[in-house]
Amino acid sequence: MSLAILIAVFVAGLALGFPVAITLGLASMAYLASADIPLVVMPQKMYAGIDVFVLLCIPGFILAGNLMNSGGITERIIRFANAIVGWARGGLGLTNVAGSMLFGGISGTAVADAASIGGMMIPGMKKAGYPADFSAAVTAASSTVGPIIPPSVPMIIVGALSGISVGKMFLAGAIPGLLMGLAMMVTTYIIAVRRNFPRQPWQGFAELGKSFFSAFWAIAMTGLIIGGLMSGLATPTETAVVASIYAFIVGAFVYRDLSIRDVPKIVIDSAISSAAILALVGFANVFGWILVSERIPQTIAGAVLSVTDNKFVVILLINILLLFVGMFMETIAALIILFVPLLALAQGVGVDPLHFATFAVLNLMIGLTTPPVGVCLFICANIAKLPLTPVVRAIMPFLLTNIIVLMLVSYIPALATWLPSVLLD
What we know:
Elements: H1 2-15, H2 20-34, H3 41-50, H4 57-70, H5 73-85, H6 91-107, H7 110-127, H8 132-143, H9 153-162, H10 166-172, H11 174-195, H12 204-231, H13 236-254, H14 263-293, H15 296-307, H16 311-326, H17 331-348, H18 353-366, H19 375-383, H20 388-411, H21 414-423
């Protein structure tokens, strides 16, 4: 009975449009009350969920991304990306994807990517003659590369949940992230040729060099993060702090686009964003504890293994489940609730934990661009001043492309495990 109440309140909350964190909290509270469990369990489990040292990475990387974004990083990255690929047919679309790949190595979140890149590129593409629906679709799709290419907030969450090294998680996402970006660039180019989208003239090697040196300090931040982790000189949390200090120095004293007076507001906004994520982590931990106490993970694993114990079929079933869940649930909540039981299921059929973690995160990133709860889809449609339906139609080729990359990463473990094994083992 209590489990039925938990599910009913959770589904009702999502149907009514409540924030996922609030929905998880209300459902958990309803369960505890109906099961006659003291409500003091709720703050205890919430605190236990966020009392994980590696989660301190999250406010650090969010602050670093916000400082760099306010310090002129977006414009410089787009200028550099445009100098590289802007001359091709559909060049601004290719610039959009390339910009997201570069920006993703700094912000670590898809939402920040969609808002920052989209705020500049969507109006610019529309002005240059690109259809508004395509402009919004390519921006939303490419924003999902951000949390795959390191650093990545979802991968920090996975590391905290599973004990997998966050450094290895970051490196495991590098090749899949590059594959996603390149595949979307190919898709963009094919669509551009078929629909005769505009192209820009080649700006010359002088502009390429100038734009590279202009964006150098921004792009170097990714090297700082990866270098710190690979060298063993800093933990992920320490790397996030160093990245924040670096972002402040570059924005304020190198680019000189970051005003000291803006820093308090940036810190407050970063704190609010971090608090929202950690609140979600806390509520989701309570919800996850309830599912474990009800033996839901074991039930799921038993149900799947009763159908098949074939490794490749189980991977396919997990992907289908996560794609479906990603359509309705926020990424971090889905990870906290489902990652541990699905990891146990995957390990039961011989899937490497690092490999599983990589394609699970990749899977849920795709959910950020699928209706009805595709956050990046909503952001880009709003910037383009369009209803959701035409953007959903326009994003379908990119979703297909990303699912193909997902299948490659799911069935070729080396795409995720090779780089960490070479650099960290």
